[in-house]
């Protein structure tokens, strides 16, 4: 497909016509067929009135991120899990998270343009393929059911744009492989990795179609994006796409800068995902966990200022404030203050992402070794600033020797 020919008409329509999705573009100054796969603080959960399979919590959210490699565990993500290994591993995750005070899991279901479930759009993630074969069970169905039985919320965590961090061979049933082999600009090769192009309307259709499939088929309580947006900040990587946009702008209009154009591309996707989720189930939440420094977010196309003030983008924002009080650029307290002010929409919840993985380590010039109650203090400050909850990164550190003292002190305040 010739993206250069499609972009002018698409972006012109988005910038000057679309309703919700154009809000972000105006503030800063369609739908095609989804590619198919190649088939060769109380702790008491309450059940929503509309969908009895949802589990939501009143009061403070206490979450933990569960990355794909945590699910693979000692078996290794490249080896493939048997059904018994997977179930045993996830049962341990649920048990450990609950024992450590969590009421919500944010679980990787798509980390590299793949799926932790049988999908008509994406190939199975390799960690579920034993002997290279797709599993004959549904991992996501089991995870959602197990979490709900334990009274835990389950948010399906996806990386929208990342395909591969390295030159790994793509599966034949990946929609990305066809784009890559055809030379389509829907896939960008950068720094040894592969990424979906945020400027492509076909990419947006693929990602939105995947989320529609996810929310339609599973009783997830939320859909969650993290901070993988534009993988690059250099101007030359998407030069042709940006030039096509500039050519589409009327001489009477002032074109967006490269940075704002990139933000607009991502915000169109975000608004489209939010609308898709709500159209299927208006009680399913949609949220994003951007980087903790808003300046860095803007640089990679994440317009957190718009998302946190306008309706139609997110139900919650969970900035990764992975800094302690001694950080020279983003000290914890002032960064929380900034995010509290940044969330101007009263309907948007603010969750604070906390760096459990840094606790007890020599990260940040050893400043995390100066105290063993940093996380406990951070939770107390988040409450003082009326945050709606907090999320720990990541599961593997809940019961690690490195974090034992911090977790013991955190238990006293949760």
Distance between the termini: 53 Å
The parts where pLDDT drops under 50 for at least 5 residues are 1-42, 46-50
Shape: globular
Helix content: 25-40%
Topology as a string of helices (H) and strands (E): HHEEEHHEHEEHEEHEHHEHHEHEHHEH
Overall average residue pLDDT: 90
Oligomer class: single chain
Strand numbers in spatial order across the main sheet: 3-4-5-9-10-11-12-13
The secondary structure category is alpha/beta
- Taken as a percent bin, the fraction of beta residues is 5-15%
The helix count comes to 15
Radius of gyration: 21 Å
Largest sheet: number of strands, sense, barrel closure: 8 strands, parallel, barrel
Number of strand elements: 13
Summarize the structure in words:
The chain has 15 helices and 13 strands. The chain is α/β, with parallel strands linked by helices and 414 residues long. The N and C termini lie far apart (53 Å). The chain has helices at 3-16, 20-27, 68-72, 83-99, 139-149, 175-182, 201-217, 239-248, 258-280, 294-299, 304-307, 332-342, 363-366, 374-384, 404-411; strands spanning 45-46, 56-57, 61-66, 104-110, 153-158, 162-164, 187-190, 193-196, 222-225, 285-288, 316-317, 349-354, 389-392.
């Amino acid at each position: 497909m010739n993206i250069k020919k499609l972009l002018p008409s698409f972006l012109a329509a988005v910038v000057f016509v679309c309703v919700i999705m154009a809000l972000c573009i105006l503030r800063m100054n369609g739908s095609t067929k989804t590619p198919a796969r190649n088939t060769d603080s109380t702790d008491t959960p309450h059940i929503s009135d509309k969908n009895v399979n949802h589990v939501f919590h009143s009061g403070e959210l206490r979450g933990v991120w569960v990355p794909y490699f945590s699910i693979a565990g000692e078996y290794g993500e490249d080896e493939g899990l048997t059904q018994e290994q997977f179930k045993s591993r996830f049962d341990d995750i649920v048990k450990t998270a609950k024992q450590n005070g969590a009421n919500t899991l944010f679980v990787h279901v798509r980390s590299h343009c793949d799926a932790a479930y049988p999908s008509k759009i994406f190939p199975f993630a390799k960690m579920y393929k034993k002997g290279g074969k797709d599993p004959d069970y549904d991992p996501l169905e089991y995870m959602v059911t197990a979490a709900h039985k334990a009274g835990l919320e389950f948010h399906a965590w996806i990386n929208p744009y990342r395909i591969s961090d390295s030159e790994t061979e793509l599966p034949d049933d990946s929609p990305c492989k066809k784009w890559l082999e055809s030379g389509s600009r829907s896939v960008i090769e950068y720094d040894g990795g592969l990424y979906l192009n945020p400027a492509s309307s076909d990419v947006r259709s693929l990602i939105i179609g995947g989320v529609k499939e996810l929310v339609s088929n599973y009783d997830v309580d939320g859909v969650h994006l993290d901070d993988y947006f534009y993988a690059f900040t250099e101007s030359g990587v998407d030069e042709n796409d940006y030039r096509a946009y500039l050519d589409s702008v009327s001489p009477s209009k002032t074109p967006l800068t490269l940075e704002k154009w990139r933000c607009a591309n991502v915000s169109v996707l975000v608004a489209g995902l939010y609308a898709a989720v709500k159209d299927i189930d208006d009680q399913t939440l949609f949220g994003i966990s951007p980087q903790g420094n808003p300046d860095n977010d803007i640089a990679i196309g994440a317009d957190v200022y718009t998302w946190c003030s306008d309706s139609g983008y997110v139900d919650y924002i969970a900035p990764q404030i992975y800094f302690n009080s001694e950080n020279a650029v983003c000290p914890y307290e002032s960064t929380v203050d900034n995010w509290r002010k940044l969330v101007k929409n009263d309907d948007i919840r603010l969750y604070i992402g906390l760096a459990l993985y840094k606790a007890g380590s020599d990260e940040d010039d050893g400043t995390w070794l100066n105290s063993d109650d940093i996380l406990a203090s951070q939770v107390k400050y988040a409450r003082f600033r009326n945050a709606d909850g907090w999320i720990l990164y990541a599961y593997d550190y809940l019961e690690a020797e490195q974090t034992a003292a911090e977790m013991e002190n955190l238990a006293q305040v949760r």
